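Q: What residues go here?
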């Protein structure tokens, strides 16, 4: 199983770039970055915290840091028009030499939608809109011209040039049944949050979705992530979405993902410490004492 780093969007540019350089030199597979315009609050209230813009960061990392894959987690189509997303991802692909993964989502964070005036439809229409958007993106990436007439998007005889450097995989992060079927039909990679028990349940659901749409699940790359606590858990621990314990306990948990067929595990820095040095030390500890023992 490969490992990637995932810095929070409120880190300074200097810390973000430093982590990307370290991850590349340490042999990590990828660099993930969340696509949000402000920090999350469990309401429609705005948040004044910092949030760097995802595609600007990914493209800059692509220009400055070699080798690592660059993954958007995930770009909401409620905020980004699919044509603009495809163009941004292709441009980043050229700058980075073909290392971009376009993570797409249906949108969910209420406060950024409410504050900036983006519509956030109910779940049903939101998924319908997303299913149209991913079809538009896939066609633009791989077809000479795109025609699409849907309820939410209309594209007429549209080119997208240049095409990406090599492949430009589409990743969808989801755990819901309907989104799983959309992912199985249109995506190249499937991502989900959770500890091994939760990912195991969601994997069964995703395999059923693949069977329902006639997709060979072996053709879909799988990735997962959870909040990681090195040692004792704190009050940030969320059951079903977190790993905590000794090195041996973390090794055991991560090897369970391997057994589930997870190809890549992203380590968020959200729980790694309150300072850049603490977070750097936590990543270095995992790299030296945990990751080498995961098959």
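A:
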């Amino acid at each position: 199983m490969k490992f990637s780093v995932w810095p929070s969007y409120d880190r300074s540019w200097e810390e973000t770039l430093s982590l990307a350089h370290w991850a590349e030199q340490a042999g990590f597979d990828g660099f993930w970055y969340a696509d949000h315009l402000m920090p999350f609050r469990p309401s429609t209230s705005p948040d004044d915290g910092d949030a760097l813009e995802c595609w600007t960061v990914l493209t800059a990392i692509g220009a400055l840091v070699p080798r690592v894959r660059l993954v958007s987690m995930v770009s909401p189509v409620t905020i980004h028009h699919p044509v603009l997303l495809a163009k941004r991802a292709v441009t980043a692909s050229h700058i980075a030499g073909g290392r971009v993964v376009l993570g797409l989502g249906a949108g969910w964070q209420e406060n950024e939608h409410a504050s900036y005036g983006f519509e956030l439809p109910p779940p049903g229409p939101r998924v319908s809109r997303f299913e149209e958007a991913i079809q538009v993106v896939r066609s633009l990436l791989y077809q000479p011209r795109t025609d699409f007439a849907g309820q939410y998007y209309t594209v007429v005889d549209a080119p997208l040039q240049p095409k990406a450097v090599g492949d430009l995989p589409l990743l969808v992060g989801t755990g819901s049944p309907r989104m799983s079927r959309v992912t199985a039909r249109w995506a190249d990679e499937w991502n989900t949050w959770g500890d091994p028990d939760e990912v195991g349940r969601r994997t069964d659901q995703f395999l059923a979705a693949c069977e329902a749409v006639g997709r060979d699940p072996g053709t879909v790359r799988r990735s997962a992530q959870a909040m990681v606590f090195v040692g004792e858990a704190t009050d940030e621990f969320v059951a079903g979405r977190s790993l905590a314990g000794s090195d041996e306990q973390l090794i055991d948990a991560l090897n369970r993902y391997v057994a589930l067929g997870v190809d890549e595990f992203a380590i968020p820095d959200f729980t790694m410490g309150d300072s850049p040095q603490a977070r750097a030390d936590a990543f270095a500890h995992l790299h030296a004492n945990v990751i080498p023992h995961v098959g």
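A: Context that may help when evaluating the design: Residues 2-293 form a domain with the TIM Barrel fold (CATH 3.20.20.30). The two ends are 6 Å apart (CA to CA).
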